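Data deposition worksheet. Section B asks for the primary sequence of the deposited chain exactly as it was used as input, without tags or linkers unless they were present during the calculation. Section C holds the resulting structure in token form. Section D is free text for depositor observations; keep each observation to a single sentence. Incomplete worksheets are returned to the depositor.
Section A, Depositor: J.P.
Section B:
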Amino acid sequence: QEQLVESGGGLVQPGGSLRLSCAASGLSLRYYTVGWFRQAPGKEREGVSYISSSDGKTYYADSVKGRFTMSRDNTKNTAYLQMNTLKPEDPALYSCAINLAVRAPTYGLRPGEYDYWGQGTQVTVSS
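Section C:
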């Protein structure tokens, strides 16, 4: 079965860094748009970053631009989210997802554009 498994979450101090991983099985990530999303308690899920299957470019939400970097290793079939300069508003359950459409979504930060989801990994920022 197709599966996405996130890892790398944990507790980090403000201003610190974490790298999240999204390992895929049963499908090849290089053919699809892949996105990272997060959801904090009491808040709706929001898009963080995605790599478009159409142009291969990486896009970011304004809230993380300049601090987070998304990448994809096709050999390992794994997507990553490098998070630097973590802020108190960053803690959330972070999930990866893929879009299976032939055409990449025009705006890939919308959760409704994605078909397969991982279970998420928790990120906590505290001093």
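Section D:
Residues 99 and 113 are 6 Å apart (CA to CA).
The first strand starts at residue 3 and ends at 7.
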